[in-house]
Amino acid sequence: MTRKEYLEAVGQAGRTELLRKPLSGLEERLAAVQRDGWAIQFMDNPTPAERLAAVRADGWAIQFLSDPTPEERLAAVQRDGWAIQFMDNPTAEERLAAVREDGRVIQFLSDPTPAERMAAVQEDGCAIEFISDPTLAECIAAGRENPEAIQFIPHSVFDDYEATDAKEMP
Fold it and tell me: What's the predicted TM-score (pTM) here?
């Protein structure tokens, strides 16, 4: 269940009451972070299982973990690509997982690789907005994924297309 689904189900007041309730037993603590990953911020010395459960429930919970493990970091971006904005020096695997989950997070990546760029536009065509000097192949992939992405494609790409031999087109 995502944070949004949870909040809709119990309402903000219900979430606040859940998080204020003292959590004593390990099973109760684990159940709390499985329901709402943000509950981790109220726990003293969370166990590795609680930490991993929190980011699996809500990737943004990574911001409440001190020194997250590689497994926790990867689980966070696989759950919610936007969690990458809370990570210092993400690995290539984490970066690719993040754009595959939500292409628009490419805006947080410095110097994205061609694979990351293509994965981003294949996941969300409008991610082309955040790619400087997109290739023709990236533009075509973006347009196939979402025709509205054309508004973010630079005019120079169309000029290059007209100058390109049709046999070279993907």
Answer: 0.77
Q: Is the pLDDT of residue 148 over 90?
A: yes
- Cα separation of the two ends of the chain: 40
2 shares a domain with 76 = yes
Q: Could you tell me which residue, 2 or 117, shows the higher pLDDT?
A: 117
User: For the chain, how many structural domains are there in total?
Assistant: 2
Is 39 found in the same domain as 101? no
Sign of CA dihedral 87, 40, 102, 126: negative
Q: Are residues 20 and 65 in the same domain?
A: yes
In three state form, how does the secondary structure of the chain look?
Answer: CCHHHHHHHHHHHHHHHHHHCCCCCHHHHHHHHHHCHHHHHHCCCCCHHHHHHHHHHCHHHHHHCCCCCHHHHHHHHHHCHHHHHHCCCCCHHHHHHHHHHCHHHHHHCCCCCHHHHHHHHHHCHHHHHHCCCCCHHHHHHHHHHCHHHHHHCCHHHHHHHHHCCHHHCC
| Residues recorded for the chain | 170
Dihedral of CA atoms 65, 71, 74, 80 in degrees, nearest 10, equals -50
